[in-house]
Design a protein that fits this description.
The protein is of the alpha/beta class and about 250 residues long. Helix content is about 45%, strand content about 15%. Strands 3-2-1-4-5-6-7 form a seven-stranded parallel β-sheet, sandwiched between helices. Strand 4 (about 85-90), helix 4 and strand 5 (about 135-140) form a beta-alpha-beta unit.
């Protein structure tokens, strides 16, 4: 498929789920740009080459998603190199798990800054361009734990729940401008991070999932790509839960 003029920016783009999102958007014919931390430059370049060998042409952009100024600078750089951003996937995220009684302020702040403040920091840079052009697709990657909560994750669950409120409010603001805003909430997915969990613990987790397995990163990627299609303009303010039946409501 030939590239279209629509640029897709993916924060956390070189991570496990981010990689599959980038691949699926590339299959869709988008001009994909994956964000990464400045200190991950060499890792990102190696990742880019791996994707190229697989047939995917994906650009790179360094950014600190917790910094509004860094996000503004990155957005200008991406527009100058690739064009205005029409599709945004907010996928950057970290965990710093601890029960609230043992959680320090740094653990709380770092997770809220990376997982939730980043959504404002990045989206604010591109929303005007989407509205002005009459087209935009924004997908925020939340989590099943933002819906049901999780022991030891008051920080992460709060941040991911906050994404839902952000999504629904912004969706109302830009609905008449051709811009859609949605969330995708994965459950336990077989990324490198999840697969590194001790086997006995992982078996216990899988036993709680009705379909009896972990999710596949490409299953998340395909759902995100669907929401980003030109023809998906009637879906906004919505959430797609992809958790194997772990949490239903």
């Amino acid at each position: 498929m030939s590239k279209t003029s629509k640029v897709a920016l993916v924060t956390g783009g070189i991570g496990g789920i981010g990689t599959e999102i980038c691949k699926q958007l590339d299959h869709q014919g988008r001009e994909v740009v994956a964000c990464h931390l400045q200190q991950e430059e060499s890792i990102a370049v190696d990742w880019q080459q791996e994707q190229k060998q697989l047939g995917h042409t994906i650009g790179l952009a360094a950014v600190d998603v917790t910094s509004f100024e860094s996000c503004a600078s990155m957005a200008k750089d991406v527009e100058s190199r690739f064009g205005p951003v029409s599709i945004l996937i907010n996928c950057a995220g970290i965990t710093r798990d601890a029960t609230l009684r043992k959680m320090d302020q740094a653990q709380w702040t770092s997770v809220l800054n990376t997982n939730l403040d980043s959504v404002f920091n990045i989206t604010r840079q591109v929303i005007d361009g989407m509205v002005d052009s009459g087209f935009g697709r924004i997908v925020n990657i939340s989590s099943v734990n933002g819906q049901k909560g999780q022991f030891g994750q008051t920080n992460y669950s709060a941040a991911k729940a906050g994404m839902h409120g952000f999504t629904k409010a912004l969706a109302q603001e830009v609905a008449r401008k051709g811009v859609t805003v949605n969330t995708v909430s994965p459950g336990y997915v077989a990324t490198e991070m999840v697969s590194s969990i001790a086997e006995d613990i992982l078996d216990q987790i899988i036993a709680t999932i009705p379909v009896g397995r972990l999710g596949k990163p490409e299953e998340i990627g395909r759902a995100v790509a669907y929401l980003c299609e030109d023809e998906s303009g009637f879906i906004t303010g919505s959430n797609i839960s992809i958790n194997g039946g772990l949490h239903m409501y």
